[in-house]
Amino acid sequence: MTRFSDEDRERIRADLIKAGHDCFARFGFDRTRVSDVTDEVGIGTSTFYQFFDSKEALYLAVLLTEREHLFETLEAAVADAETPREEAEVTLRTTFGEVRSNPLIQRLFVDGEIRRIESQLDGTAADEDLIDDYSESPAVYGQVLPQPDKWVESEVVRIDDPDIIRGLFRSVLFVTQARETPVVPDGTYEAIEEALIQTIVAGLFTYEENTDRSATHD
Fold it and tell me: Considering only the top CATH level, what class is 65-115+143-216?
């Protein structure tokens, strides 16, 4: 077995995740082979198993990396919002955009693939560590999308449970699945998505918050 320095191990693991990202995005999980990933990195398949116990473990690591990327993108986008309503609009638009443009984000949040992968992992210590890094719980998601807690506390929204608001924001992402189906007439998806965002935001915030927003933009 080849021995690597800590620096080399860190580099190779990062390279495997990057190559895995590219392969899984192009081919999907089922059609991607371990050899496809190792060929990209320039290592043998036997060496791969010094870093990941299985293809499923690599896929989970890739999805976790994508999740963190989305959360960082959301945090940066919301930082420029001036009002709670703008925070909501930016959050929805940014998340919709990421789901539409990134097949791995779609598979993570819309297709629910991370649960399928978790069920296939073999329970080794390395795999359990990866699973421990991921949680669907409101507490973890709240660390990434803390704004609803502030909205509820400030009484600017009509829903008094921030977890319901977070669940609403995640649930509407399923509309992206209808984008290229007969359900949505050709050329209308973007307008439908924007109308959905505006309808959700207008219904979520109180009359006073919506009025203040309108006055600000007059």
Answer: mainly alpha
